[in-house]
Design brief:
heterodimer, A: mainly alpha, two-stranded antiparallel ribbon, 21 helices, B: mainly alpha
Chain lengths: 504, 167
């Protein structure tokens, strides 16, 4: 089940100078988008999506992996230096990094963040490379009703995991599912929900949807956000970026290992993402620490836990995406769109028949973390800390222009530009009122396959929904769905109500 | 509070209206099952509505309760001063989408980037003394540079054809 030859082939492909060039370009794009507050790796890949039409799948995917890994890592740079996390996943790093910066030890914090990111990213990528075969074998066993229950589990987790507001999560996911039904029905080819607008018969294009959700909504949010002046940052000494060996002993191997396990698991869960991974690992490190009082005042152990977890998450998020087409986080979802653009349908067949495409993608994730993060910080760290002071009027005008032209390029129809705008306005209002966007995206992406599996299952059973309760794997997934709903949705709600009543 | 609307309520109501339009469109399609229990394109949408409706109602009721208790003071609309920029951007983007195919990439992109840069620059320089001529010139130069970069990126590097329009 472990295709050693394929794995070695994957690494060899990425190490070819031309392909490695794409990885390096992706890495620097990712550092830029990760370091500028408000911009994310998801947005970077969303903007890049239309351009990947003209590229071969391997360079396109390798570049995306560079953006992904660097985007998650680079959030720690501004989180430490100017107290604004470049990416949401760096919020825990900010808690410990900025106090160190104030004490004149910012370089130490950046060094620990880079090393932890490199370790986590490398391990996460390697684990996925080695277990992707086993996961595929498992997926091959399950039948159509089980597949529906698995997609349902993913959608429910995505809806309940991010916020305590269960109802808003459910609304977001069903909204995504509803938008996905616009156009032609895949099974019967009958038109639905096109409201007598002929271009809607083709449905809403995935690229326009992604661009609307991530790019247009971000531009609208930035248009009303007060921009803080970025303070000048003192020059960093290169030597100070390299942490002392005694500090690693203090952090402990256990902290790294535990954080990576947490990060990987969070990556596999749909919709959890880097911020949840960092938060969970940081909280666990603080709980297990001999000196929890040091947390919040510049504790490097906290930085190591958060950064190793959020970068290990990258590998975890790729596993369900490639094996079943269920993305673990928004970047994985957008990367899935790159696969779909090239006619590659995520799932067991992709892993079995196109491992020469999947292996370089996962190898790129590993190599990006192992080879690029630390050397680039040592060489270019001084410039990284200035990224956040970029001229924002130019930046957001450029993003809006690239986003809109990208929506056009996807189908060469200007109607899709309008759709991107419409989806962007919807996402803007959702963000403003705390409706999570990840379930919306997952609903849109997984909607068609969820409906397909559901109706095929009913066709097999002669219309009886009992088919979902008679297949063992399906029952397991449904039980897991109930468990997740209870622990992530119902229990936190009951606890918060209890607290409110106690206060009263 | 008086004379103002709770935006949480507005959003929940809009979502409820959308779900209602969706369900009306769904039921006018065809019955969810054929005679031999074969499913149609209506079944799945009806199931989605069955999930979305209670969730929308729950949010609506909660927003209504919070509005009554005065908890939602921070989220009141209309805060037109703050919402002005997003509204202008939506207008500019709509105009860009509408004219892109007609007048072509160069003119529409120049106008779009000029408008956006001007808006963002004015926003950033609020409270500062900056000459209007400088701001206009800056926006114009940025718009030209961005249009050229976009052209090079799409046409020259990735060989993607952009509409020429009237040019």
């Amino acid at each position: 089940m472990i295709d050693i030859g394929g794995i070695i082939g994957g690494f060899t492909t990425v190490l070819h100078p031309a392909i490695f060039g794409y990885l390096a370009v992706g890495f620097f794009v990712g550092v830029f988008f990760g370091a500028v507050p408000g911009l994310t790796a998801t947005l970077a890949i969303a903007l890049l999506l239309p351009l990947t039409y003209g590229m071969e799948p391997v360079p396109a995917l390798v570049m995306c992996m560079g953006i992904y890994m660097a985007g998650i890592y680079a959030g720690s740079i501004t989180a430490t230096t100017i107290n604004i996390p470049g990416a949401p996943s760096a919020m825990m790093t900010q808690r410990e990094g900025y106090p160190l910066m104030q004490r004149g030890e910012g370089a130490r914090a950046l060094g620990h963040a880079a090393i932890a990111s490199a370790i986590g990213g490398t391990v996460g990528g390697l684990v996925t490379l080695f277990i992707v075969g086993f996961a595929t074998a498992l997926i091959l066993v399950i039948k159509t009703p089980d597949k529906f229950s698995l997609v349902l589990l993913a959608l429910v987790i995505a809806a309940v995991i991010q916020r305590k507001d269960f109802a808003k999560g459910i609304i977001a996911v069903t909204l995504g599912l509803m938008i996905a039904t616009i156009g032609m029905d895949r099974l019967t080819s009958s038109a639905r929900f096109y409201f007598d607008i002929p271009p809607l018969l083709a449905g809403i294009d995935l690229i326009s949807f992604i661009i609307g959700v991530f790019a247009i909504s971000e531009v609208l949010i930035q248009a009303e956000t007060f921009w803080k002046r970025v303070p000048p940052v003192a020059k960093l000494r290169r030597r100070a970026l390299i942490p002392r060996l005694s500090e690693f002993k203090e952090i402990g191997l256990r902290t790294y290992l535990k954080s990576m396990v947490i990060g990987y698991f969070m990556g596999v869960l749909p919709g959890a993402g880097g911020s949840m991974a960092a938060l969970a690992a940081y909280s666990e490190a603080m709980r297990a620490s001999k000196h929890p009082e040091r947390y919040g005042k510049g504790e490097v152990q906290g930085i190591a836990a958060a950064e190793s977890a959020n970068n290990t998450m990258c590998g975890g998020a790729m596993l369900p995406m490639v094996t079943f087409g269920i993305p673990g986080d928004p970047v994985a979802a957008v990367t899935m769109a790159v696969l779909l653009i090239h006619g590659l349908l995520p799932g067991p067949q992709l892993v079995l028949q196109q491992f020469h495409i999947i292996a370089p993608m996962l190898a790129a994730l590993t190599l990006c973390a192992a080879l690029l993060i630390i050397p680039s910080l040592l060489l270019l760290g001084q410039y990284y800390i200035r990224i956040a002071s970029i001229n924002r009027p130019i930046l957001y005008s450029f993003i809006a222009m690239v986003a809109m032209v990208g929506a056009y390029v996807a189908t060469y129809v200007t109607f899709q530009m309008g759709m991107a705008l419409l989806i962007g306005v919807l996402a803007y209002f959702m963000r403003k009122h705390n409706y999570p966007l990840v379930p919306l995206l997952l609903g849109f992406i997984l909607g068609p396959i969820a409906e397909l599996y559901f109706r095929r299952s009913l066709a097999v059973s002669g219309g009886s929904p009992l088919i979902f309760f008679t297949h063992p794997a399906s029952v397991i997934f449904l039980v897991l769905t109930v468990v997740f709903v209870y622990f992530l949705g119902v229990r936190p709600y009951l606890q918060s109500r209890k607290k409110v009543e106690e206060v009263r | 509070m008086r004379g103002r609307i709770n935006s949480e309520l507005v959003v929940a109501t809009v979502l409820l209206i959308w779900v209602t339009i969706y369900v009306v469109s769904a039921v006018t399609l065809e019955p969810p099952f054929k005679r031999d229990w074969e499913t149609t394109a209506t079944l799945w949408p009806l199931m989605l509505v069955a999930i979305a409706y209670p969730a929308c109602l729950a949010v609506l009721v909660r927003a209504f309760k919070e509005d009554k208790e005065g908890k939602e003071e921070k989220r009141l609309i209309p805060d037109w001063k703050r919402s002005r920029n997003p509204i202008i951007i939506v207008g500019l983007t709509g105009l860009y989408a509408g004219t892109f195919g007609l007048v072509g990439y160069w003119i529409s992109t120049f106008v779009y980037c000029f408008g956006l840069t001007l808006l963002f620059d004015l926003k950033e320089s609020r409270g500062e003394r900056r000459s209007k001529v400088r701001t206009l010139l800056f926006s114009m130069v940025v718009a030209i540079v961005l249009a050229v970069i976009g052209y090079l990126l799409y046409e020259a590097i990735f060989d993607i054809r952009l509409p020429k329009g009237i040019l």
